[in-house]
Amino acid sequence: MIVRTAAILSGGEGRRLGGLAKESILMDGEALGPRLVRILARRFGRIIVVTKHPGHYEGSGAETTADIIPGMGPLSGLHAALSRLGPGRDEWIWLAAVDMPGFDPAFVELLEARLESSLEGSSPDATDRPEACIARFGQHFEPFQAIWSSRLLPQLEGLLHRGNRDGSARHPSFSDLIATCQVSWVSEEEARNVSPDWQLFHNINRMEDLASGKARFEIPHHGTEAASES
Known about the structure:
Layout (H helix, E strand, L loop, with lengths): L4 E6 L15 E2 L2 E2 H9 L5 E6 L11 E3 L8 H9 L9 E6 L7 H15 L12 E6 L2 E10 L3 H14 L7 H5 L4 E4 L1 H7 L21 E4 L4 E4 L3
Parallel strand pairs: 1-4, 1-6, 4-5, 7-9
Antiparallel strand pairs: 2-3, 2-10, 6-8, 7-8, 10-11
């Protein structure tokens, strides 16, 4: 097992949810943030949460941190999480998002096996050494439910600082990062062997997303619920 640490990005603004902190949404009666920590802790020995609301995670056993270079979207969160992997510690993290509550350890095993195969015979300083292991989705890819290396920190810092200097409304994206690194890919067909309906990648961005899937969601303090079809 080469991936021992999981990171949860929990810093989204939730604009399409009326500014609601997504980690506080209840799923089957449990807040999304602490619930995901609990589930990931069954597989990973260390959980890092990048959040603006560390109080949501008190008593969960997770480490909390904040963006080091804020305001650049999810890449800021990935950078903050990878920065916690210092010299002599784990190189790899499993990247999760608090608004993507699905998890299947079989998918971790699939990506980890692919990564181990790609790393076999590769020296630590090889230029073709993988720095991420990611599933494809058609012409796109899934940056969450994926494995990322702390070796990407220089590229990440370059993208984030350049984004700050540009003053552009467009944040640097995962596609920008992928263009700078070596990726070990898992095909969509392989991924669907684990998640045939792609429910593993279902995320909650809008109110209508709360009514999809098989779980029951509740908005705290509002008394409104969205229930899925049974």
